[in-house]
Amino acid sequence: MAMYGVLHTTNVRKDRKIYSVTSTTDLENGFFGFVGDLATGETDIRVFSAKAAGSKGKVYYISTPEVNYADDSINDRALGNFYIPTGEVGDAHEANMEDILTVSSNIVTPLATDVVKGNYLVLVDGSHKLTESATIPAGAKFVAKIEAIKPSGVATFITTGSPLNKVGRVYNLIQLRVITSQEF
Question: The pTM is what?
Fold first, then answer.
C-alpha cells in the first residue's frame, strides 16, 4: 500500500489564512502550493495547484484532519493512508515565516538517499513536494530549513514463518522551519 503525506503543525501562527480547496489531482497532507480562483460553480472553495512558472501569491500547505471512511482494519486508521481524492475538499493553510512544520519524508525530494539536517527545502515548478538544497538558491521566495529528522511509526513483527514478517510502517518525519515566505 502506498504511503501518503503526513504533516504535523508543530508550531504555527494562529492568525494565518485557511482556505477550503480542491484540485484536479489527489492531494496529501504536507503538499505545498498556491490557492487560486474559486472552483467552477463554487462560492467558497478555491483551486489548489503546484508551483508553476508565473505563480502568484503566498505559499500554502495542505493540512486536513485525517478522517478515513474505510475503517475495516488497523491500517485504515494510519495517518499515512489518508489522502484527499481528486475533486474532494481539503484545507490549505498559509505558510508564514518561523512556522515549524513536520512532514513525512515522502513529501520531500532529497538531494541523495536521505535528507540532511541543516539543509534547505524549496519549491520547484510542477511539484507539490519540497526539494532539498544544500544552499539557499538566489531569489528563492519560499525556503524552509531542516531542523531535525525523527523516526516515526510502529513496526510489529509476526512470528509465523521464517524469516520474521514485519507489518506496520516506520518512516522519517522531517521537522522544518520556514525562514522565507514571500509573495510570488
Answer: 0.89
